[in-house]
Amino acid sequence: MLDGKWARGVRGEGVKFVCIGWGSLVWDPGVLRCVGDWQTDGPTLPLEFARVSRDGRLTLVLTPGAEPVPTLWCELDYHTGEAAQAALAGREGAALHAIGLWPGHPPRHATGYAEIAQWGAGRGFGAVTWTALRPRFDGVDGAGPKDAAAAASYLGTLTGDALVRASEYVRRAPDQVRTGFRAALEATFAVT
């Protein structure tokens, strides 16, 4: 059971609000007010390069059935869980319903919610927020590439700035986020 200060989502003495990250958020938090460095002992979550972003990158998202991989986390400098959630939505350019917040109701795309709730409760965090965007590939929202070859094939079609951004995203993804598709994508860009 949560005590009063946690149930209200307000930071009390010694209570931490944290963000989970696995992609560009880790190396480019933008407006997100992080406290200290990213920690490498985040929850293990089902992630894959499965969402084509507006700029053409194939980004890491929570993906049903994907191989679970370790994530990262950092403490945030906000006074309520809702403020941390709103800040992450702003950084991601996403609607609030696409940003998870625990404790609370699962986001629309709830993949990983149970694991995050268990991890957050076990650490005694006051609130945990994360990006809860769905896979999107080949114009289909909610579906990712069928396999690594399809993902690599898509990346092989990119040119110019889109190719540069996509290559940077794969290259700079945290080392511990070794998804099932990652080796094939690195080979596409000859990343070593």
Tally of discrete structural domains:
1
What structural category arises from helix and sheet content?
alpha+beta
Shape: globular
Helix content percent band: 25-40%
Order of helices and strands: HEHEEEEEHEHEEEHHH
User: What separation lies between the terminal Cα atoms?
Assistant: 47 Å
Mean pLDDT: 91
Beta-strand portion reads: 15-25%
Tally of contiguous helical segments: 7
Number of strands: 10
| Unreliable segments of 5+ consecutive residues | 1-8
Can you offer a commentary on this structure?
This protein is α+β, with helices and mostly antiparallel strands. The chain has one domain. Helices cover 31% and strands 24% of the residues. The strands form 3 sheets. The protein has a 5-stranded mixed sheet, sandwiched between helices. Strands 4-3-5 form a 3-stranded antiparallel sheet, with helices on one face. Strand 9 and strand 10 form a beta hairpin. The N terminus is likely disordered.
